[in-house]
Amino acid sequence: MHHNPIPAGRLAGFYFTYYAALGAFLPFWSLFLKQRGQSAAAISVLISLWYATRIVAPNIWSWLAARSPRPIRWLRFGAAAALASFAIFLLPLEFGGLFAAMCVFCFCYNAIMPQFESLTLSHLGKRSENYGPIRAWGSIGFVLIVSTFGLLFDHLSLAWLPLLMLPLFAAILLSTLMNNYAADYHIENDDHHDFGARLKQREVLVFFLVALLMSMSFGPYYTFFSLYLEENGYHPSALGTYWDIGILAEIGVFYFSARIFARFDPVRVLQFSLLLAALRWLVTALFPQNLWLMTLAQLTHAITFAASFAACIILLARYFPGRLNGHAQGVFYGFSSGIGGVLGALLAGQAWRIGGGQLAFLFGAASSALAFIVAIIGMAASRELKTSLP
Predict the structure, then answer these.
(1) 185: in domain
(2) Which of 180, 210, 229 finishes a domain?
(3) Residue 368: CB partners within 8 Å, gap ≥ 6?
(4) By CB neighbour count within 10 A (0-12 exposed, 13-18 middle, 19+ buried), where does 190 fall?
(5) What is the pLDDT of residues 269-286, one digit of tens each?
(6) Whether residue 150 sits in one domain with residue 91
(7) Which residues span the domain enclosing 290?
């Protein structure tokens, strides 16, 4: 049977540039905002906008693309708008200006990836097992930039961060110009029939609640981990190394995920990862200066993030099969990393204000522990579930 060749190099190039920019943004942005004179509470509000825009941006942008005769234009427009709006950070902005710039930039940047995922899947078709190796290039881009920028900021002021990041956004735009949807691809509007009925099932509601709590527990990590390490005497290059450890562990799990889920039910994987996450944040809160324990805690990112994320995607396919899945992905994205991310960032900011980094990470541990308890009580492994679905 003749297959169209997959443009793996062009697809991988996009993931590489997109996650390279994210590798500069996530670890160093809070330090940049602190350098600009923002307090911990202000930083948590600004970072929360990254998650808040996830609630709406992907859905609005996908809706526009679905109604366009040339959906690729919306992807390219999003990348161009992200580059243009990021340039605003070169200006000496106060909190109000930073707030407005973050709203526009995060809205554009968060709109790009879901569109590109559908572009990638349009090329893969039934060969979806090829997704992992292509997506892994994103993690490689992230690791390279985190390491490079970590070393750079040992010697440079963080005021240089926006200028150093601009070429990365230019590279994302260039990559969208080099990619296109597969020739025979049409974006279909989702079939909403049966979606509401499935959404109301107890097990599915519990799953979404668990996903929300899990995202909340990552709030202190994504908002304050770099600041927390800096407060405990780590240099930017060491800080980059800690982020890298987590991402490298994540690459391994994405690569072997098919084998993991052939052996273990995704509900069990999710439950185990929640318990491990509670331990990870507890160790981070109590032993920030212990190199070995902090390294071990970062290595658990393989399970606490990568394996739990993969488990969630598999469970979404189980709860919402076929054409319902696209709509379910949007709800999951907006609810977990959107609402959960906002709550996590804002509550972590308040915890930091009251009791510093230690209290912020203890809040993360409490969120994970609560998610674990809810998952154990409310979620069953597959055999019990399949009989309860219509």
Answers:
(1) no
(2) 180
(3) 213, 214, 217, 274, 275, 277, 278, 280, 281, 304
(4) middle
(5) 999 999 999 999 999 999
(6) yes
(7) 190-390
The rounded radius of gyration (Å) of the Cα atoms in the chain is: 20
CA angle at residue 222 from 355 to 146, to 5 degrees?
A: 125
Q: Which of 79, 26, 381, 71 is nearest to 227 (CA)?
A: 26
DSSP string covering 86-122, please? Answer: HGGGGS---HHHHHHHHHHHHHHHHHHHHHHHHHHHH
Question: Do 308 and 181 meet the contact criterion of CB atoms below 8 Å apart?
Answer: no
CATH code where residue 41 lies: 1.20.1250.20
> Same domain, yes or no, for 215 and 298?
yes
- Model pTM above 0.90: no
Identify whether the C-beta of residue 178 lies closer than 8 Å to the C-beta of residue 155.
no
Residue 253: closest CA among 299, 314, 296: 299
Query: Are 151 and 223 in the same domain?
Result: no
DSSP code at position 190: P
Split into its structural domains, the chain has a count of 2
Residues 217, 159 share a domain: no
* CB neighbour class for 69 (10 Å; exposed up to 12, middle 13-18, buried from 19): exposed
Same structural domain, 261 and 359: yes
- Chain-centre distance of CA 332, in angstroms? 12
Q: Verify that 234 and 115 share a domain, yes or no.
A: no
Residue 80 and residue 180: Cα distance in Å, rounded?
16
Count how many residues are written for the chain. 390
Q: Please identify which residue in the block is written with the tokens 């509000």.
A: 45
Same domain, 78 and 41: yes
Got the DSSP string for 29-84?
HHHHHHHTT--HHHHHHHHHHHHHHHHHHHHHHHHHHHT-SSTHHHHHHHHHHHHH
Together in a domain, 117 and 174: yes
Per-residue model confidence as pLDDT tens digits over 213-267 = 999 999 999 999 999 999 999 998 888 898 888 888 888 887 777 778 888 898 9
**In a domain? residue 357:** yes
